[in-house]
Amino acid sequence: MPCKSKRQLIVNNTFKLDTHPVQATSVNDEQTRKKHELDVAVGKARIGVSRINILEIANELRFGTYNDRPQNSSEVNKMITLFEKHGWQWYKESNALAIVIEPSHLCPGQKLDGNWSEPESLEEVKFVDRKPLILAYGQYHVAALKKMAQTLINEEAMLEKWMARIKAMKDPSNDSVAEHKERRTCLAAVKGELQDLGNWAVVLYDKVARLHIQNWIWMRKDIQPQMWRRWVIYDADNLLDVIDGGKAGLGSHLSQNQILHIYAEMQEEELVLKLRDFYDVYLEEGEEAALELI
What we know:
By secondary structure, the protein is α/β, with parallel strands linked by helices. It has eight helices and seven strands, in the order ααββαββααβββααα. A hairpin with a 7-residue loop joins strand 6 and strand 7. Helix 4 packs antiparallel against helix 5.
């Protein structure tokens, strides 16, 4: 039997390259979808926008209900440096505090529909009692403002002391009179800063609002595994307190939904931050602990 030639043993390849243009396929970004659903749900629990005076309000501002991360003093100092560089911009939506409250604790008849582009339209919100206010986020804003306020209060006391000393003189010199005038100008500026520093925008959320949960399921459309169809099921018996749901509720989502500030340090600012951190540790833990930072 004659041997077959090598050419006769070659099997023709029946596979062909797919040269059609590549079409975009839908990507199932589950995390993004869930976050969007939570954003929508939180938005439905929003009561309105207003402002409070952080330094004068009788109610305690309480953090940690939905976010129990400990406060970092170095981050507080960064926030202070940010305020000093760009101003505290209390009226911006991205800087607003989130208060979770039952509507019954708000005085009736208030306008809570201020406009972010018109700071004067943000009226001070009034409460019917002095119960603590639960805040979902903003602890660093509040801590930074209170620390800045304390610095201004100390400066105010020092200026008043200097002015009192000059005022007690029987026959002050021309230099003392000029100094007294300069101190008065500085005192007026400090008092003005303190007056403006306390105002801060807030977004009010309904603590007891209840909404239907959307349960999402994915079902096979046919035998092809890549073909799926999404269905939305509304379960009327499955209700959730929109905000007050502990770590599993939307309060947790709201507390993590704050816009993060972008902060770039210059060399001078970095030095100021280190000095502030050093001073804080020195006051709280003593000289030996502070020297360890060097």
